[in-house]
Amino acid sequence: MEGDGKLEAQIEALLNVEKQMRQAGDVAGTRKAATDILQLCFEARAWKTLNEQIVLLSKRRGQLKQAVQAMVQQAMQYIDQTPDLDTKIELIKTLNSVSAGKIYVEIERARLIKKLARIKEEQGLIGEAADLMQEVAVETFGAMAKTEKIAFILEQVRLCLDHKDYVRAQILSRKINPRVFEADPSKEKKKPKEGENVVEEPAADIPSLLELKQIYYQLMIRYYSHSNDYLEICRCYKAIYEIPSVKEDPAQWIPVLRKICWYLVLSPHDPMQSSLHNSTLEDKNLSEIPHFRLLLKQLITMEVIQWTALWNTFKDEFENEKNMPGGTLGDKAAEDLKLRVIEHNILVVSKYYSRITLKRLADLLCLEIQEAEKHLSEMVVSKALVAKIDRPMGIVCFQPAKDSNDILNSWASNLEKLLDLVEKSCHQIHKETMVHKAALKA
């Protein structure tokens, strides 16, 4: 009790000093008095009194923002030294309420929210942690370091993915422009001009920009895996593959390159997929995994692929993927691989045939007639190719239908060619006649 009374007397004395300094407009003195009060409470381990004094000091009439900032920063150092979890949460909540709505302590508030969200996550309350993190929009913080902003947004995305909130995860991920990872950090360190915000140094636990790039793309892979968007997953792995630390270590780039190859062949055929396919085939590192070079070659060569032979060749590699970094390819992957092979075969047939019977098409695809017709129809609907099926005759026509303008244009073109040939023939006949006449006169 004597100790409590002594502490109260010391706090009272310092409160009077703080009042005098504040009224005199002495920034350094007010800050010193406020932080000394917090230090006294901390040394006495009077956590309840500490919380009360933080609230009291922050609400005093005409309180200087420098004093509030100093108090919040000092009290944040005490968080990890609290005796138990309840005391820690109470202190964080007190600091959070004091810093709410104050721009000059927005960075400290973001760090406090992050700490509280981590505690909630450890308690298994992922939904609450995700909601807490979404309260803060760090992209508007001018004084926060770029790496810390990115790390905070990535934490928001991760918690949304853990909570299975894929819509919010996508919205939050769009706050990060992937081009930011390509910037050269050495060129960005410049002295701020007069009137500009001074950017604070990031917290000690914030990863580097290249580490954040890897985290970003790993989170995006999780997001795209939910919707089985294979081409976007492939592009994410491609971005990870280009990171210097990954490219220099075969133990890291070989599993990534394997994933790039698998997701390339699982992606539906389109110009971007075709471009990635060709650029990957030109990669010299592919010689380290020749099986995958063969896989890519097969799916780019315009020849019909036998699904059974392909699956028997690559089944072990497919199954082995679960032991690689990045995990399995997903439950649907084997079915989708078969579908891509069928689509490839239909494209090959459309290239070599203008008309073909449905029975012959089904034989080439090793499918039933109804199944072949279904896959062909799906490709036509997705505009991957142009085809028409004459069901009564059982004939597929791969030539696009021409409208009246196209037919007239082709006739006009043919007439032009014909008249050109007639003109050339007349010229040759006239030339031969003149030569023959000249020979007779001689």
From TrEMBL:
Q: Does the keyword Oxidoreductase apply?
A: no
Residue span, PCI domain: 232-403
The major lineage groups are: Eukaryota, Viridiplantae, Streptophyta, Embryophyta, Tracheophyta
Q: Does the keyword Ubl conjugation apply?
A: no
Which is a Gene Ontology cellular component entry for this protein?
proteasome complex
The family line of this record is: Belongs to the proteasome subunit p55 family.
- Write the record's keywords in alphabetical order, separated by commas: Proteasome
Q: Which PROSITE patterns match?
A: PCI (PS50250)
| SUPFAM superfamilies from the UniProt entry | Winged helix' DNA-binding domain
Protein name (Swiss-Prot/TrEMBL): 26S proteasome non-ATPase regulatory subunit 12 A
